[in-house]
Amino acid sequence: MQDVAPDTDAPDTGQAGGAIVAIRGGIVDVAFAGQIPRIDSLVLAGGVPMEVASVVGDGIVRCIALGGVGGLALGTPVTDTGAEITVPVGAAVLGRMLDMFGAPLDGLPAPEAEDHRPIHAAPPHLSDRVLRASVLETGIKAIDLLSPIERGGKTGLFGGAGVGKTVLLSELIHNTVEHHHGVSLFCGIGERSREAEELWREMGEAGVRDRMVMLFGQMNEAPGVRFLVGKSALTMAEYFRDTRGQDVLVLIDNIFRFVQAGSELSGLLGRMPSRVGYQPTLATELAELEERIASTRKGAITSIQAVYVPADDFTDPAAAHIFSHLSASVVLSRKRASEGLYPAVDPLASASVMLTPNVVGQRHYDIARAVRRTLAEYEDLRDIIAMLGIEELSAHDRAVVARARRLERFLTQPFFTVGAAAGTAGRLVPVADTLDGCEAILSETRFDRPESAYYMIGGLKELAEGTA
User: Fold this and answer.
1) Which residues hold ATP (predicted)?
2) How far apart, in whole angstroms, are the C-alpha atoms of residue 188 and residue 195?
3) Which residues make beta-bridge pairs with 250?
């Protein structure tokens, strides 16, 4: 959008309101002749909501537009509402699809909320936080075995474009929301509108929509909306946790788009860019969002977040900062995806603080370590195999390769969410079956079938049943 130069002869607006003096993309400067609005205040310009981001000086504040600025012009009157942005909270939002303001996107009337809460809030005090060393079982073998999800913690699904982040997140929603006894909340940040519609329909078909809230700030919306919709979602989640004492499962797709929106706004606000062009406030903005996801004495918020990794560069500042907030990281590998090993979870790069004997048990811990060790040895042998062939390996190394290739295939599984397209029924695999299968492969007690028989199955009992 073409910038509009500042108007140095702004009209005298009086104390009750102001007038636009400059428009730069999604950033609007407003002059107030009297008292200026507070930071984070909601102001209205010709029906366009805006949030005050900074004070420029001489009665001028810089605002983030939360809608299209096409109808605005220099001199457009601006009204200070005297309040922050609030969203409806409570049981009325369950089963609804809403935008960042809590306005309906599902064609139904606005929810009659129990209360409205401001979207900006401080994280729980350290004295109010509690640690809950328990695991959220997902039914996905690779995750439950190697990167178990902490109940009340934060898990990231990392990957570049096209490696299966959204599909994996959709499967996690399918497998966990139905069995989650609290409230589930999905927040779509900067993703495609088509995915929102598909997820809305799927949740209805699964019969879990009445226990779920869905908020969206899609990729076609203003960067201010994409930047703030995550805070709207957490405000609703905090109400269920703190006021109703319920556990909340928050699913975010995609947290990188929150960072990206902040980068867009930072440039328009005139801030000096930091590394790789990111905003200098990247760490602070991310912490303000992530630190609100916590467990307290009243309830827990468990979060699973898809994280886009630009150009598969895991040293990217956005990915690096997000890593530091997580209790579990599930890294998706483009190499494994190209080999058809779905879900394309990298067993050597994924990690979880829950994978300790005290939490998952000694047997689970030992099997996970043995699986990782076997796959790491196989990774070291790949170059030799590529150059000389597997026949040149020692008998011990050939046995390692045989175990590793079966483990790789056993850790794949068909998903419910793509069952119609793939032509195979999804599998929900208990952790016990995953451990039994990996243990049998490591001990070579189930080597009676070719490698391909272990591909896209649930537990090893399917081999005996002849369904593989």
Assistant:
1) 159-166
2) 9
3) 185, 303
299: annotated binding-site residue? no
Instruction: Report the CATH number of the 87-354 domain.
Output: 3.40.50.300
pLDDT per residue over 46-96, tens digit each? 889 999 999 998 899 999 999 999 889 999 999 999 999 999 999 999 999
- What tokens appear for 397 in the block? 């190394």
Q: For the chain, which residues make up each domain, given as ranges?
A: 17-84, 87-354, 362-465
Q: Which CATH architecture has domain 362-465?
A: Orthogonal Bundle (1.10)
Which secondary-structure segment (H or E) carries 365? helix 362-388
- 83 annotated as a binding-site residue: no
165 is in an annotated binding site: yes
- The total of other beta-carbon atoms located within 10 Å of residue 120's CB is 15
Question: Does the active-site annotation cover 151?
Answer: no
User: Quick check: is 231 catalytic?
Assistant: no
Residue 401 identity: V
Phi/psi of residue 51, each to 5°?
-115, 135
Q: Are 408 and 348 in contact (CB under 8 A)?
A: no
* Residue whose tokens read 């005290």: 358
Of residues 191, 238, 264, 285, which has the active-site annotation?
A: 191
| Model pTM score | 0.90
Place of tokens 């929810």: 111
The domain 17-84 having CATH identifier 2.40.10.170: the answer here is yes
Active site residue 403: no
- CA atoms of 430 and 114, how far apart (whole Å): 39
